[in-house]
Amino acid sequence: MGSFSLRWRILIETIALIATVATGTLLWGPTGTIAAGVLATIIVLFRSLGLIREFSDLTEDVVRMTSIDRTHRLNPAGPAELARLARAVNRLVDRVGADIAKEESERFRLSSIFNSMKDGVVVVDDQGIIESVNPAAGEMLGAVVPVEPGMQLTSLTNHPDVIGVVTSAIQSGNPESTEIELFDNQGTLAALATPFPRPDTKMVRALLLLTDLTGVRRLDTTRREFVSNASHELRTPLSGIRASAETLQLSGIDDMAGRKQFLEMILEDVNRMDKLITEMLELSRLESGESQLDLQDVAPSVLTDAAVLQFSTIIEQSDLTLESSIYPDLPVVRVDVEKMSHVFANLISNAIKWTPPGGTITIKTWLDEKSVHFSVADTGQGIDPEHLPHVFERFFKTDSARSQPGTGLGLSIARHVIEAHGGGISAASDLGIGSKFVFRIPVAE
Ligand code: ADP
User: Fold this and answer.
1) Relative to the CA of 407, which ligand 1 atom is closest?
2) What is the pLDDT of residues 270-318, one digit of tens each?
3) Mean pLDDT calculated for residue range 98-115
4) Counting atoms of ligand 1 from 1, which one is nearest the CA of 408?
């Protein structure tokens, strides 16, 4: 009976009841009519109760499916109308479920983008209440507590320029932008506040976009400093050449001794300029990654022996002692021998320059984990702790070094060469006692 439609079921059951009553009347007269009528009433009552149960089961199922278990589906049983209804509800729930899943995945995609953006995004209403905020905004503005929608903008930052750009965008109704210098020189941000209305109310809110300009500004400053330092360093020998040439032109041309001296001075300045330009080009090649390393496997002692040999004469002439303590049987390192010899040359010539006669320069090598360490130490005048962190910066010279020959590029080049080999370099110094430069090169695999 389950697949019969209700209409047919009622028709058939009515005919069956009439037939029952008629049969009772025919067989037993009025008593039969009453008995058959009572029987028929009981049957109708049971059938109605069954139908009510089927309806209420279906209702329960719908409630369960829509509010408790979204995976549950209705059983298309019972009368054909109820089965059709169950199938239709199942289809509807499937479609709604698919739409919800699609929307949820889209929302997840958008929120992943929003949360992983490098730029900071904040949506603020005209009461200064945050509607949306991504983690980058909190990090960029140095928020001390985790910031969430519903909080005041001031809990994200109390920087007047941030608050100012948002307020003026909301008040003017036009996009406003500004550059924000963070407190304590923590960096520079570009802030763009764009007003947009809320569709449901007359309120205006602003979308604040924060972009970190710190790297760009730093690069800008570095570039400016480089041009200014390079020009200054080139101008010094150039002024020397001009002064010598002018003196020669004015009076020294006939004075043989003076002429020789001025020509030597010119040559010295030309060499200084040549060295500076060579080092600047080398540094620029290293920084841009254009400088190729000609790598070969060598024993560390090959590098130190060559350095000791190269400087032995000048060490003797400067009344210094060169000691070397080379750890035996060190594993080979894969290096560009020529570039490494420049690194040693820079470190040893610096040590010679800054160590008074009678002092000692010590070269050491040792193995630590997977790297060979090299050190060049001196008993010279040392480096002021204030200057020590800057010695690897290009063009850096301490005050006392300014009057001395030297480009201020040597250590910067050394650092790039060592880093290009996958190593690192550091400096330690005690003022008046001496300095020590240590670098490490990974052991060849
Ligand atoms: P420079 O061409 O001036 O030697 P470097 O980059 O090699 O340039 O060194 C940068 C600065 O670091 C030097 O000008 C000097 O002030 C300081 N310095 C480097 N090595 C030593 C050292 N061994 N002792 C004292 N000061 C040093």
Assistant:
1) 2
2) 998 998 899 899 998 998 888 889 999 999 999 999 999 999 999 999 9
3) 93
4) 8
Q: Which atom of ligand 1 lies nearest, measured to the CA of 412?
A: 6
How big is the CA angle at 392 (ends 268 and 318), to the nearest 5 degrees? 45
Ligand 1 pocket, 397 CB below 6 A?
Answer: yes
Residue range 257-269: mean pLDDT, rounded: 89
Residue 195 token pair: 């007003």
Tell me the Cα Rg of the chain. 45
Nearest CA to ligand 1 atom 19: 350
pLDDT at 63: 86
In this model, does residue 364 exceed pLDDT 90? yes
Q: How far apart are CA 111 and CA 354, in angstroms?
A: 59
Average pLDDT, the chain: 90
Mutate to test the pocket of ligand 1, among 283, 411, 435 (most ligand atoms within 8 A of CB): 411
CB of 379 within 6 A of ligand 1: the answer is no
- Structure confidence by residue, pLDDT tens digits, 366-388: 998 889 999 999 999 999 999 99
Tell me the C-alpha distance between 338 and 237, whole Å.
28
CA of 287 to the centre of ligand 1 (A): 20
Give percent of the chain above pLDDT 90: 55
Question: Cβ(25) to ligand 1 under 6 A?
Answer: no
pTM of the full structure = 0.60
Are the C-beta atoms of residues 146 and 130 closer than 8 Å to each other?
Answer: no
Q: Is the CB of 361 under 6 A from ligand 1?
A: no
Beta-strand pair 360-368/321-326: parallel
Position 142 confidence tier, pLDDT thresholds 50, 70, 90:
confident
Domains and CATH numbers, the chain: 6-109 (no CATH), 117-212 (3.30.450.20), 235-288 (1.10.287.130), 295-442 (3.30.565.10)
Q: What are phi and psi of 173, to 5 degrees?
A: 75, 10
